[in-house]
Design a protein that fits this description.
The structure is a single chain. The protein contains three helices and seven strands; from the N terminus they run E-H-E-E-E-H-E-H-E-E. The protein is of the alpha+beta class. Strands 1-2-3-4-5-7-6 form a seven-stranded mixed β-sheet. Strand 6 (128-136) and strand 7 (139-146) form a beta hairpin. The relative contact order is 0.15.
Length: 149
């Protein structure tokens, strides 16, 4: 079966969909990656923030969030459910997120903090590493930027 990609602000979402998105984020970031961190940090509900997700038969396959920042737009919480990996869903969602960011803020760069082992994956979407490596929640990361179009 094929999946559907959706996008919404938290205040406009069905609570069960939001719950399923948070379940996937928790399953991967907290349980699988053993990173105890504040996932529900308030940023999902900020003005202009959007969640984007791929779903199939009510199951969340992949998700991410788009945040508005002062001089940029940010993509974060990029995650694919374990059972959905290897189908290209995460890459499709990422391409769509980049398109959305360019649509919303064409003159601003897109930022993200990538887990270090995913730097090459994000580079496929035009992101380049900037700054020094850093550790967040005991996981090595790199700050990345996609210059404005």
């Amino acid at each position: 079966m094929t999946y559907t990609v959706r996008r919404a602000e938290v205040r406009d979402m069905d609570p069960l969909v939001l719950y399923r998105i948070l379940q996937v984020r928790n399953a991967v970031f907290v349980v699988e990656q053993v990173a105890a961190y504040d996932d529900i940090d308030g940023r999902d509900a900020e003005f202009g923030a959007e969640l984007m997700w791929a779903e199939e038969d009510g199951e969340i396959l992949a998700t991410l969030r788009i945040l508005q920042e002062t001089d940029a737009i940010r993509i974060g919480r990029v995650v694919t459910a374990a059972a959905a990996r290897g189908r290209g869903i995460g890459a499709d969602l990422m391409r769509r997120a980049v398109q959305r960011c360019v649509e919303v803020r064409p003159d601003e760069p897109i930022l993200l903090d990538a887990q270090s082992h995913l730097v090459d994956w994000y580079a496929r979407f035009g992101f380049v590493v900037e700054g020094e490596p850093f550790v967040e929640d005991e996981i090595p990361h790199r700050r990345m930027r996609r210059p404005a179009a």
